[in-house]
Write a structure and sequence with these properties.
Layout: H1 22-27, H2 32-38, H3 42-52, H4 64-69, E1 78-83, H5 92-99, H6 101-115, E2 119-124, H7 129-144, E3 160-165, H8 175-182, E4 207-211, H9 212-224, H10 226-230, E5 233-234, E6 237-238, E7 240-247, E8 253-258, H11 264-269, E9 283-287, H12 307-312, E10 321-326, H13 331-345, H14 351-368, H15 376-387, H16 402-406, H17 408-417, H18 419-428
Parallel strand pairs: 1-2, 1-4, 2-3, 7-10
Antiparallel strand pairs: 5-6, 7-8, 9-10
Helix pairs in contact: 2-6, 2-9, 3-6, 5-6, 5-7, 6-7, 6-9, 13-14, 13-17, 14-15, 15-17, 17-18
């Protein structure tokens, strides 16, 4: 059974209907961490985050403290918060900005103080209408309370925070494309090197880019200490993490559980969490970290929810989205829909991604709709190999960002694990699922 010994760190207010309001936030300990941080040296605040070993919650899993420390020798100009959550079936950041925007704002101010940055931006997906409204209201409240602006809370530190709604492009979840969008340009990922944000970020200045969930952990870390956070979880995967559980489960939703101490089986089957598979069917496979990730079969249900543990089995926790497919799921249709999404969202800069995604989508479409051939199986894998040579994980890069090299994941997984399902589509003249 799942372990529930860990404290609720970022979802501590989930039981309150008015969790998004300033009154509720202050009543439940809000902005205490900020006041404490302002009594500390900025480098001491950064040291607590480093001691926490907080892995970034945006997908790449890079330690936040290390990202900050990379810039200690040269002043940081900007802090950018990535709230452009666009991965299909990923909705944890969406939940946070709607339900606890003040926690995010407090985390941003703490991070800005630690980095001694006077200008921060929260870049959010444009479709998050309610989330945008609530984050902006939280910022307005913080300004009125003297927690933002000049010499906040009587200190010598000044900080301004701006909310920037994106135009709804998946590619702007990639940090350099996000920066392009923030500068008013089309969201094209930049070539790295030289355009690592830490070196040349927003407006060509050193920039720190962190995820919404990463920022939301900071008030708890400052209040309780980095060591208390690091004591949770195991190995490199410390603390708790939000998981967006979707697909064929009885209780889809956002759950905060301790890393490593819990398994995929706990998350999917525990009655306090996912509650099992709909109609008590058997599980066929699951995607462990967003649709960019290679799939797992039911034999890996007991794998711990840890960054390294999942990586060792050839996939990733990624965006924190776990999608469950049952025995009645059409894996051909699932792979086609994922590929169709990537094809639509490709920015078009790189030929393997721009052209390859469209070819793959068309082949999968004809398999799903009755025009498939047996030779299409090898054709699909050959196309995938051209986009990500060797079809290994992590994938080989042939494109500027990882969108292109992520496209083969679902196709390679589906064909490798369920080739008979593809053969049945050819034999039956298309899909027989409802």
């Amino acid at each position: 059974m799942a372990s529930f010994d860990a404290p609720s760190i970022v979802l501590s207010r989930k039981g309150y209907a008015d969790s998004f309001t300033l009154a509720r936030y202050l009543e439940t300990g809000g902005y205490v961490a900020l006041r404490k941080a302002l009594t500390m040296f900025p480098e001491d605040v950064a040291a607590e985050v480093d001691a926490a070993s907080l892995l970034g919650r945006g997908g790449a899993g890079f330690p936040a403290g290390r990202k900050w420390s990379m810039l200690r020798k040269s002043p940081v100009s900007y802090l950018v918060v990535n709230g452009d959550e666009s991965e299909p079936a990923t909705f944890k950041d969406h939940f946070l900005v709607e339900r606890d925007p003040h926690q995010l704002v407090e985390g941003v101010i703490i991070a800005a103080y630690a980095l001694q940055v006077n200008q921060a931006f929260i870049y959010m997906r444009g479709e998050f209408a309610l989330g945008l409204e609530r984050v902006q209201q939280a910022l307005n409240d913080a300004y009125e309370q003297g927690m933002l602006g000049r010499k906040i809370l009587g200190s010598s530190f000044s900080i301004d925070v701006v909310v920037h709604p994106g135009a709804g492009a998946y590619i702007c979840g990639e940090e350099t494309a996000l920066i392009e969008g923030l500068e008013g340009k089309r969201g094209f990922p930049r070539i790295k090197p030289p355009f690592f944000p830490a070196v040349s970020g927003l407006y060509g200045e050193p920039t720190v880019v962190n995820n919404v969930e990463t920022m939301s952990n900071l008030p708890w870390i400052v209040n309780n200490g980095g060591a208390a956070f690091a004591a949770l979880g195991g190995g490199r995967s410390t603390g708790t993490r939000l998981f967006a559980l979707g697909g064929r489960v009885k209780n889809p939703g956002v759950y905060e559980i301790e890393m490593v101490k819990n398994t995929f089986r706990d998350l999917i089957y525990d009655p306090r969490l996912g509650g099992g598979i709909l109609n008590d069917r058997k599980i066929k496979c699951f995607i462990p970290g967003g649709v960019s990730a290679p799939w797992f079969g039911p034999e890996l249900l007991d794998l711990p929810l840890g960054q390294d543990e999942v990586a060792e089995k050839g996939s990733m926790l990624g965006s924190g989205s776990i999608v469950v497919m049952d025995e009645d799921t059409c894996v051909v249709r699932a792979a086609w829909r994922i590929t169709k999404f990537f094809s639509r969202e490709s920015c078009g800069q790189c030929t393997p991604c721009r052209e390859g995604s469209g070819w793959l989508e068309r082949v999968l479409y004809r398999l799903e709709h009755g025009g498939g051939r047996t030779e299409d199986f090898d054709l699909l894998l050959d196309l995938c190999d051209n986009i990500a040579p060797g079809l290994t994980w992590p994938p080989q890069q042939t494109t500027i960002c990882v969108l292109g090299s992520s496209i083969p994941s679902s196709i390679n997984s589906a064909l490798t694990m369920f080739r008979d399902d593809f053969a049945a589509h050819v034999k039956n003249g298309g899909c027989t699922h409802e």
